[in-house]
Structure formats: C-alpha cells, structure tokens
Task: inverse folding
C-alpha cells in the first residue's frame, strides 16, 4: 500500500511514522508513505498556497494550483483513491478502513488547512472526502494519520496475531468485551471468576454478553444497527 500525503507540514508525521506497529510495518515495507508539500509547487516567489475567499468571509482558503500540481506529480497506480480529509466527508469507521484495504493500493491524502480548500479541488480532483467526526480540527494531518494507522494495521504482516483483528470493537458490529491481566486481585478488585475458570465455552458466552451489554449502554446507535443486521434472530435473547 502506498500513501501519498499532501501536507504543508511534513514534519508532523515524522515521529508517528517511526513509532510502534506503524513504524515497524513501514520498516518492513508492508506500506510506504511519501510526503509531498504543495508549497513546493506554488507559482509565485513567496510560495503562497492560500488566498482570500471570493465573496468575502473570514479566514483564508487553500489555492487549487499547488494542490493539483502536487497530486499530478505523483505516480499513478492502477487502484488509487484521492481523499480529502474534511469534516464534511463520510465518517471514518472500521468498514471504511476495510474497504480501503480491499479495493486500493494507493491512497493520496490531502490535508486541509485554514477554511479548507478551493471547491474545484473537491469537484475535479478528489474522489472521496473523509471525516474523523462531527468536529473541526486545526489541520487535516491528524485525521490523515488516523486513517493511515487504521489501514496499515489491517495489512497482512502488521499485527502478529491475525485473530486479534477479528475479535475487537466494531468487527462484528459490537464494542469489545472487558479484558484483564495479572494480578487476579488488585486493590480488592477481582478478575471475573469465569475468565479464570478455563472453561472456554463459558468464557466465550460471557464475552458476548459483555459486548452486548457494553454496546447497549455506551453506543445505542451501534446497538440498533446490530439488532437490525440480526433481525432474524430472537430479539428477546438480546
């Protein structure tokens, strides 16, 4: 997987791309990240990448020329998506990460700033807009890094135990179950007896019940979606 990041602040990614599983995956060339600065493609002597908006308004807007030039300087792989990180985009979730992993081998991520980008970038260059959530950040680098992390961890070879990718939050529409490690008692708080029983069928049953309980309490929106996808089962059993 090739990630081309169009960013005014390449240094933002330096530490994150060298850390943890993400850093190890890049070192093993499971994925590759290329940073390109649109300022290098600015057409004036001041290397200006922003300007005032037509019609008035507060704040500056990223100009189209440097962004188009930066993207057009990149190699074109057979299956690529040009993504603008924008609060107006589709929500970044696990199903979207799975889609990107399955369908593309090149992701170009455009990181917005200021009041956003010229609409011609959205209409004639970008193939998808993605949002980290219903809030506004100071830059598009933060959601871009989240997307890279989420995609890379799904690539073969990044996570040591493939089973761990299947038994976690959102993979089956429910939140993850509670997990514990040693010691069995900490400040009078005990690990549930069932987890120490060695009875794997009972453990599986307990974990599923906890997933359902936690999703009901914390994410009723996900719970309703899960019920709908399991509508042929007995609702009373949930």
Result:
């Amino acid at each position: 997987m090739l990630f081309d990041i169009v960013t005014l602040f390449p240094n933002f990614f330096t530490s994150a791309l060298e850390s943890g599983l993400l850093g190890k995956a890049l070192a093993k060339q499971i994925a590759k990240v290329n940073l390109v600065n649109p300022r290098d493609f600015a057409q004036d002597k001041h290397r200006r990448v922003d300007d005032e908006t037509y019609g008035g308004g507060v704040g500056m807007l990223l100009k189209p020329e440097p962004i188009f030039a930066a993207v057009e300087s990149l190699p074109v792989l057979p299956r690529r998506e040009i993504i603008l990180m924008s609060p107006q985009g589709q929500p970044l979730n696990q199903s979207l990460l799975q889609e990107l992993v399955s369908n593309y081998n090149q992701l170009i991520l455009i990181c917005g700033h200021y009041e956003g980008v010229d609409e011609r970038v959205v209409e004639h260059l970008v193939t998808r807009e993605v949002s980290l959530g219903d809030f506004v950040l100071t830059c598009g680098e933060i959601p871009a890094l989240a997307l890279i992390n989420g995609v890379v961890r799904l690539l073969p070879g990044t996570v040591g135990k493939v089973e761990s990718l299947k038994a976690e939050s959102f993979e089956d529409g429910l939140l993850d179950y509670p997990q514990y490690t040693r010691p069995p008692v900490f400040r009078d708080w005990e690990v549930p007896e069932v987890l120490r029983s060695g009875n794997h069928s009972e453990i599986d049953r307990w974990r599923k019940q906890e997933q359902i309980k936690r999703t009901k309490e914390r994410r009723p929106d996900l719970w309703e979606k899960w019920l709908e996808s399991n509508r042929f089962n007995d609702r009373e059993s949930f």
Summary: The chain has two domains: 2-152, 167-237. The radius of gyration is 22 Å.
